[in-house]
Design brief:
The chain contains 15 helices and 17 strands. By secondary structure, it is α/β, with parallel strands linked by helices. A six-stranded mixed β-sheet has the order 6-7-8-9-11-10, with helices on both faces. A five-stranded parallel β-sheet has the order 2-1-3-4-5. A three-stranded mixed β-sheet has the order 12-13-14, with no helix packed on it. Helix 1 packs parallel to helix 4, helix 8 runs parallel beside helix 9 and helix 14 crosses helix 15.
Length: 433
């Protein structure tokens, strides 16, 4: 017997993958875990008869020869009844997933960090020229849009956009999609969000705005992830972290949302034993003190584990500087020969005293000014940045002050320079391997 299954607390991407896998593996039975989120529950209340879904209780585990996992490859994320299959020595395993971490060893693995897992299966369906119905296309698009924020999350990849186009061409219904992607926002969620906002504080970590909130919850509360997304948007911060303590069960759910590439929530949550994507993730920590957990989260954020590229990785060095007493004409010749548009100006002790750029040469009105020292026309309004800051922060300074280069400092000495071209190299992912 072949079965297909997905992770607990299934969302639309999970169900979409489950149904898509039945098209690729028509002889396999789709097994939906017992716990699903509220939006999916509403969808299945109407559409369940369209999909031949099995429950874990209906599976005779002794007869299972092949396990196909979608949207996960972690044993702990499977329904508890199915996770015992990990002890079966002759089990043939296949998985399709876009999460980086997992402990399921498979004979055949399909792993790619797309914005949504359904993208991988849609690509295979297109490759095999399989036929899909409009309702299947709609379900697949709901899953894709849910996991990519309608293709707006930083984790979205070109493959996701291509899959969306393919599904729309297969008559995916955007009206149905809009109906079921409306988040379930009830009294409990409203009370939690109101309390979080009332106690909210903003801070700055490595040049990014951050808000961390704590809240006690009693019993199961649906859609805390949606609450966190709304919280981040209302607080207008780059990153939002929520710590929700279930008093009765003595456990904390940590949920994070990020709107910037530099802070990878998935990496942060993996440090706490959870997981997720660059833009969203969560971790369940049992028996933890919320205050101690908050301190740990802050240390992880400050530790820059999530920053893949810092200024030291992309700045230009060694830095060519010019002495403040050098004649304007000589500096103009140096810039022309070097093919650059500006450079830092230092004094006799190599202390940074200014920056000169092509726009400064517009101050030269008479030929004799070409013999004046460069300090006469240089810009003395120094904008610098520390070597341990992020490339994103450097770009923000360039935009704010309309400057094309920023000296990079360490212990009050210039050690490098970052230019607009350096920043563009980073933002457009042109860094060498």
């Amino acid at each position: 017997m072949k079965i297909i299954t997905t992770h607990k607390n299934s969302d639309f991407d999970a169900l979409a993958c489950l149904v898509a896998a039945t098209i690729i593996y028509p002889d396999a039975k789709p097994v939906l875990p017992g716990t699903i989120n509220a939006n999916l529950k509403n969808f299945l209340a109407i559409h369940k008869d369209l999909f031949d879904l099995w429950s874990p209780q209906e599976v005779d585990l002794d007869t299972v020869e092949t396990l196909i996992c979608v949207d996960t490859h972690s044993w702990s994320r499977l329904d508890q009844r199915l996770s015992v299959l990990s002890e079966k020595p002759d089990l043939d395993v296949i998985f399709w997933d876009h999460h980086e971490d997992g402990d399921i060893e498979a004979r055949e693995s399909h792993l790619s960090q797309t914005g949504a897992a359904i993208t991988l299966l849609v690509k295979q369906i297109e490759k095999e020229r399989k036929l899909i119905t409009p309702i299947q296309a709609t379900l697949f698009l709901i899953g894709l849009y849910e996991d990519t924020g309608h293709l707006s999350y930083p984790s979205t990849r070109p493959e996701d956009a291509h899959a969306a186009g393919f599904l729309l061409d297969r008559k995916a219904d955007l009206n149905i999609l809009g109906t079921f992607l409306q988040p379930a926002y009830g009294k409990k969620q409203k009370e939690i969000l109101f309390k979080m906002i009332k106690q909210a504080e903003r801070s700055d970590v490595n040049g990014f705005s951050l808000s961390v909130a704590q809240s006690e919850i009693h019993g199961r509360v649906e859609n805390l992830a949606m609450v966190m997304q709304m919280y981040r948007e209302l607080m207008n911060v780059d990153v939002a972290i929520g710590i929700f303590r279930d008093v009765e069960k003595d456990k904390c759910m940590v949920i994070g949302r990020s709107g910037v590439d530099e802070i990878n929530i998935g990496v942060l949550m993996r440090s706490l034993g959870g997981g997720g994507h660059p833009a969203a993730g969560s971790a369940l920590v049992k028996g933890a003190n919320p205050d101690a957990l908050l301190e740990t989260v802050m240390e992880l954020l400050k530790g820059n584990q999530y920053s893949t590229v810092m200024l030291a990785d992309i700045m230009s060095y060694p830095v060519v500087t010019v002495n403040a007493g050098t004649p304007v004409g000589d500096v103009a010749m140096m810039l022309r020969e070097m093919g650059c548009t500006g450079m830092p100006v230092v004094d006799d002790d190599d202390n940074l005293v200014g920056v000169v750029s092509r726009r400064d040469f517009k101050k030269v009105k008479k030929p004799k000014q070409m013999q004046s020292p460069i300090k006469a026309i240089m810009s003395r309004n120094l904008i610098t940045i520390g070597y341990d800051k992020s490339a994103f922060e450097a770009a923000r300074l360039m935009i704010r002050h309309d400057i094309g280069r920023i000296p990079v400092m360490k212990e009050e000495k210039i050690i490098g320079i970052i230019t607009r071209s350096d920043a563009m190299t980073y933002f457009y992912d042109l860094l060498p391997d």
